[in-house]
Design a protein that fits this description.
Layout: E1 2-10, H1 16-31, E2 40-46, E3 57-63, H2 66-74, H3 76-86, E4 89-98
Antiparallel strand pairs: 1-3, 1-4, 2-3
Helix pairs in contact: 1-3
Length: 99
């Protein structure tokens, strides 16, 4: 199994209401991907980090194989969801590992 962790911050200048609205929109789009992207077994997005966190949004996903992660990266549904979140975030950090 492959774990895929991605974290972002909001771009400067967004109000709290904008952060909430855009975060929820991205969460909905991303969490709809399991069952659509082959080999993606789970995906959750958290918008409520603890104050000790360096990032505001985190995505945790699991894939059957490294190849499934590659399929996800180029899948049209993922590309569309990623466009939503990249429109209002910055500071993307990624960690992929095998368990």
């Amino acid at each position: 199994m492959i774990k895929h962790i991605v974290a972002w911050n909001y771009q400067a200048g967004l109000s709290d209401a904008e952060k909430q609205q855009r975060g929820e929109q991205a969460k909905e789009a991303l969490e709809a991907l399991p069952g659509v992207v082959p080999g993606l077994t789970s995906l959750t997005v958290s918008l409520a980090p603890l104050d000790s966190s360096d990032r505001a949004i985190v995505l945790e996903a699991a894939f059957e194989t490294p190849e499934a992660l590659d399929v996800y990266a180029g899948h049209s549904a993922h590309v569309a969801a990623a466009a939503i979140i990249t429109a209002f975030t910055t500071g993307r950090v990624v960690l992929d590992y095998e368990v």
